[in-house]
Protein: NADPH quinone reductase related Zn-dependent oxidoreductase
Organism: Weissella minor
Amino acid sequence: MKAAVIDHAGGPDVLSIQERALPKATSGWSVIHIKAFGLNHAESITRQGGSPSVQFPRVIGIEAVGEIYESSTPELVVGEKVMTLMGELGRQFDGSYEEYALVPNAQIYQLPVEADWAQLATIPESGYTAMGSIKTAKVQSGQTVLVRGATSNVGVAAVQLLKAMDTTVYASTRSEKSFDYLTAQGADEPILDQNGELQTAATFDAIIDFVGDQTLNDSLSHLKQGDGYMVVTGELADTWETDTFSAFNIPWGSYLTNFQSTDINQSWLDEMFSLINQAHLRFPVGQTFELADIVAAHHLLDAGHVQGKLIVTTP
Ligand SMILES: NC(=O)c1ccc[n+]([C@@H]2O[C@H](COP(=O)([O-])OP(=O)(O)OC[C@H]3O[C@@H](n4cnc5c(N)ncnc54)[C@H](OP(=O)(O)O)[C@@H]3O)[C@@H](O)[C@H]2O)c1
């Protein structure tokens, strides 16, 4: 089978397609025939040597969709459509940038959605992170919700899921040119994020923030007072900390927390699949590549100009 292997850290060119032996299922682990996977910035960081725990050579890739090829448990049936994400996939053990992957049974999940493989590959990391953020923000139907950094892949998944939950969705971008894109995803009202300030006086029942610490105080100023929830899920501005934060910036009686997709909550996954199926949601695919073109795909990932998820399909 073919695998995109990284022997040492570096630019996109360090991803080399190599021939490897097919993995065998072992106790507690099963083999997935990978059909497609989405690309993530976390993988670019790992490729560049920014994940100290990752030892090279390594096949990176933190998510995939495919079929069970060889199983070590009756709960995973050969041919079954599944997805996997996170855990130590593509970090402590080889990840998704290959045709077949050996994955712990505990992190293989059923994928009850009918769509082609490239479309399905938009779901695991972006969809689950969006759903986890929504659940962490304790969003209820009928509420007003702001998604800050909404043109991101996780952002548009959040917009679509929130719309399907009957909330009123406000969605921010730094470019008015993206307003139509956000409206097409289901946003009720796009909002311009200009020099770190949202161009609105509105406050919201819940805020899901993908921009992070750089705009933390501005986001908090738009959270309602009393029982509002704000969840920081991303650091698109790449700031990671702020020296201007005060606990008294949180509106009285409201809450600030974060979301991390490290541990997967099956009931949140089930709720996400229900929303996807009931509302026929389709998270946008930016561009698709074959595994052989993984270097070109990573160049595009690093450039960061494509709206929609970059997807790699395998035979
Ligand atoms: N916590 C978790 O478990 C988890 C899991 C997955 C991802 N994440 C995080 O979630 C975020 C979104 O991930 P993604 O892969 O969906 O991102 P993405 O698709 O690469 O996001 C691209 C968008 O980010 C916006 N952006 C870029 N730099 C920005 C800045 N300085 N300020 C404001 N917006 C900026 C741009 O929107 P505009 O130009 O339209 O403003 C651009 O369209 C990332 O920070 C990622 O690390 C977290």
